[in-house]
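Task: complex structure prediction.
Instruction: return structure tokens for all chains below.
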Amino acid sequence: MTTFWSLWVIVLTLANLALVCWVLFANRKVAVDDQQEPGNQTTGHVYDGIEEYDNPLPRWWFLMFVGSLVFSAIYLVIYPGMGNFKGVSGWTSVGELNRDQEKAMEKFDETFGKFAEMPIEEIAQNRDALKMGARIFANNCSVCHGADGGGNYGFPNLTDSDWLYGGSPEKILETLYKGRQGLMPPQGPIIGEEGVRNTAEYVLSLNGLEHNAEMAAAGKKVFGQVCMACHGMDAKGNQALGAPNLTDNIWLYGSSREQIQHTIRGGRSNQMPAQDDKLRDDKIRLVAAYVYSLSRQEEVEQ
Amino acid sequence: MSDLIPTREEQEGDGEVRYRMLYESEDKIYTRHIRGLYTRIRKYTGLPLLAAFFFIPWINIDGHQAVHFDLPERKFHILWATFGPQDGFLLAWILIMSAFALFAVTTWLGRVWCGFTCPQTVWTMMFMWAERVCQGDRAKRMKLDAAPMSAEKALRKSATYAIWIFIALATALAFVGYFYGIRDLVVDLATFDAHPQGVFWVGFFTLATFFNAGFMREQVCKYMCPYARFQSVMYDRDTLAVYYDARRGETRGPRKKGIDYKSEGMGDCIDCYWCVQVCPVDIDIRDGMQYECINCGLCVDACNSVMDKMAYPRGLIRFTSEDELETGKTNYLRPRLFGYAFVLVAMLALFTHQVATRSPIEAEVLRDRGARLYREYRGDIQNVYTVKINNMDQAAHEFRIRVEGKPGHEYSLRMPRQIYLEAGEIYAVPIRVSVPKEQLQDTKHDIDIIVEAVDKPELTDRHQTVFIGPKQ
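Output:
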């Protein structure tokens, strides 16, 4: 605050306190003595023949009033309230927040501490840990990956056994900590429109989907020249690069002819945000264990 | 503390301005002790209630305190039931019913709640008993207060305060015990291990009780209590309240016992002032009904005992109504009372039904709000739901979830292997419901999601939600 506004606040605050004191003491003036009951005074106001008494306050009420004035004065000395004056206690809301956060952290240490050293596979067997992991997942991950972890268009399914970067505890932790930057480079300019169409047919054929065999045969050549660098000769993908398996009929961007062509022609860019600056280490471990357990859930037919 | 700021006079302009006292302290009320019907009623209704207040926390049911308002856990244990935040509306209904009960009783019997069962009155009466035991009755207490300080006075006063503090402390412990857990509280306090907040509140309620029942007394009813303010609105001409029968009593005056006072034009009131001396709010009931009167009946007892001594008929001051004083009859059958009674009984019945049929399991279902309404996966249409299960039972259970939908659909579910909830736990379980695409006939159709405890299938809750698929 500038000095002006600081003074503005101080003057207003003190003026109000003074005003309240004045109101309390100024009311001692006796207006009119009551004609019928000489012991009582009235304010002199009469409405429809009803008069307003103006008798002294009860002592306890007066003491409470004075007490609150004294409280205000003491408060303004101890706590910030007078413009730029910080108060002698040095209290700030940020300081209180930090104290509360420290307390919360201590509580977290108590709750999560025992999982800091536990292997992920073991945490995934712990009922309470999975519940905590599920809650953290619901708060932080389910927006993209779905409440059940089943993924969405452009967001991988975490409940199947198909992993872009690997499903071992170490890999899951790595994904969570550092995030992932998935990139399928645009191939349109390199292999031309005909190449795009042919390759799309080949990818369709890999999954046993309806395709044009002639174009697919042409596409296979293009695949062997360009795509295999990442996706491998057998098109089973490469987890070191995050290149998906193209033979398992699991799709991040859809399996229609147009969608596949689009992916090949324009490429895809995708990002899993890093969580190490968002979540505490022990929370990340719990989420990792939960994700690890997701692909081990059971299907119930009814 | 002097209780007056001396008046002074000042000149202001040419008119004379006078100042008066800034505040005034209440006169202390010295009540005379009296025995009688209404004192007995108060005693025999008050003692069981007090006993209940003090001892209920010590009773354990199902391994927890009989009545325990566990705020940190957000659970209210009341006898065999446990209530959570989602039962807040029940609490609201209890409060609404209590308010209605107060309206009904006030319309019928005036401020009997104030006079007989209000804690402010009951505790004040306890404190007055302590005063009487240590300092004697009215005249003795007045003399003692007027006398200079002496060893005897100091002893009598401190004995009074000691009893007061004892009662106040017991009250505070019991009250805080309802929230803290009485056994823990007593043990923690004794071992100096109690939570600072617990210590603070015990101290706070001790002091509050001490000052309220010791010094504030009737001023709470006169200046602070909101009920006292609006109960007067519920009085009508047939409300039973303490009245002085002026027609019988006037002209008042002292007389010898047994003379024929009526021929001298006197009424039954002998102007002995007992009714004023016993009054805890220091009014003269013979001036007619006043807003301070709490219908405690002490003046009725006092007057009746005097009437007995004088061998006059009882009831010069009695519980009666304005109507009865004028026409000789109180009209009990009035629409107002019927209305209150009817509404009260109806609410009570509904409330009882609601509590009796409360399922200790509650499930809520939220459809997943993803980018798409449904997911297509290998010929199946999938919808994802979050099922929030609240286990309000006293025991832990394992749960299973089923789906009931339209015939001709094969629903398959995917969910965690084990859904196990501790007593009182709330847990959100994501489930995935899949239907083969070719079976879907509608873009959307209703399905029921059923949650039940594996070991106790009667603990169940079903929730209707909607399954959305591609446009048909």
